[in-house]
């Protein structure tokens, strides 16, 4: 300490009391009567009552200030510890503080810091997936499995909800956070992210925006068309038996622009690829108003009159779906493949 003081004296290391105050939080607590109380050490400048201030991820205006003897003061200079009130939340010990020009600037800076901290926390949060569900339950990290259900009709919603709520494995139950009819949308993903839930889609698909948001937020969407498969998958996951070998990969989307009925052949759909590609060996779904109408395989894929292996983004073609002839204009054709999961 003597060496530090000597070096400081030689180099004239002195705090400037004329600038806006900055420093560090020594401790902080929540007082029932006063709200958030933070003990600060002023390291540079002078802190005044009514100063707009940002402390860690919190902000406010210094409403009252007391010194280390508990006496009210209006000014605190360098190297002075003081306790303040007036913050919107309780900061953390070790946080840094700074006085701002006005309350508007302090609020904007504090809210931005809080937003970044929340994003960082969310990224670090251990999200539950079907693959890690058993280990998560075993570790006691969750006591219930949160699920959001979207289905094509109300009857499916009710049947699936009732079936899932009957599942109980070692005292852990399934909680239905939300259920509704219709395509999986961005609001569903936002709710799933906030509640650490799966989304189960029964005969419905996510919108492209919802799919992108789910990937960004690490929200798992499971798509099914048979109720007992949903139940079986959830039970296996909760018992630690789930060991999927394949996963679905959507490779493209096409929009039906016109249809042609050919006798003894079937219905040909004239389409344009609007995203990715459609391949001859891909599986396809016919989606109408966000609801899956048919799921099957292609009988043929053409570009003009030629049989082709694929039609890529922005190009037109014609297709026939094996066993299905009710294609309509404006139907979306979703092409997908089942890809082996790398262990």
UniProtKB/TrEMBL annotation:
<dbReference type="GO" id="GO:0005829">
    <property type="term" value="C:cytosol"/>
</dbReference>
<dbReference type="GO" id="GO:0005525">
    <property type="term" value="F:GTP binding"/>
</dbReference>
<comment type="similarity">
    <text>Belongs to the TRAFAC class translation factor GTPase superfamily. Classic translation factor GTPase family. IF-2 subfamily.</text>
</comment>
<dbReference type="GO" id="GO:0003743">
    <property type="term" value="F:translation initiation factor activity"/>
</dbReference>
<dbReference type="InterPro" id="IPR000178">
    <property type="entry name" value="TF_IF2_bacterial-like"/>
</dbReference>
<feature type="domain" description="Elongation factor G-like">
    <location>
        <begin position="21"/>
        <end position="99"/>
    </location>
</feature>
<keyword id="KW-0648">Protein biosynthesis</keyword>
<keyword id="KW-0342">GTP-binding</keyword>
<dbReference type="InterPro" id="IPR009000">
    <property type="entry name" value="Transl_B-barrel_sf"/>
</dbReference>
<keyword id="KW-0963">Cytoplasm</keyword>
<keyword id="KW-0547">Nucleotide-binding</keyword>
<dbReference type="InterPro" id="IPR015760">
    <property type="entry name" value="TIF_IF2"/>
</dbReference>
<dbReference type="Pfam" id="PF11987">
    <property type="entry name" value="IF-2"/>
</dbReference>
<dbReference type="GO" id="GO:0003924">
    <property type="term" value="F:GTPase activity"/>
</dbReference>
<dbReference type="InterPro" id="IPR044145">
    <property type="entry name" value="IF2_II"/>
</dbReference>
<dbReference type="InterPro" id="IPR023115">
    <property type="entry name" value="TIF_IF2_dom3"/>
</dbReference>
<feature type="domain" description="Translation initiation factor IF- 2">
    <location>
        <begin position="120"/>
        <end position="235"/>
    </location>
</feature>
<keyword id="KW-0396">Initiation factor</keyword>
<comment type="function">
    <text>One of the essential components for the initiation of protein synthesis. Protects formylmethionyl-tRNA from spontaneous hydrolysis and promotes its binding to the 30S ribosomal subunits. Also involved in the hydrolysis of GTP during the formation of the 70S ribosomal complex.</text>
</comment>
<dbReference type="Pfam" id="PF22042">
    <property type="entry name" value="EF-G_D2"/>
</dbReference>
<dbReference type="InterPro" id="IPR053905">
    <property type="entry name" value="EF-G-like_DII"/>
</dbReference>
<protein>
    <recommendedName>
        <fullName>Translation initiation factor IF-2</fullName>
    </recommendedName>
</protein>
<dbReference type="InterPro" id="IPR036925">
    <property type="entry name" value="TIF_IF2_dom3_sf"/>
</dbReference>
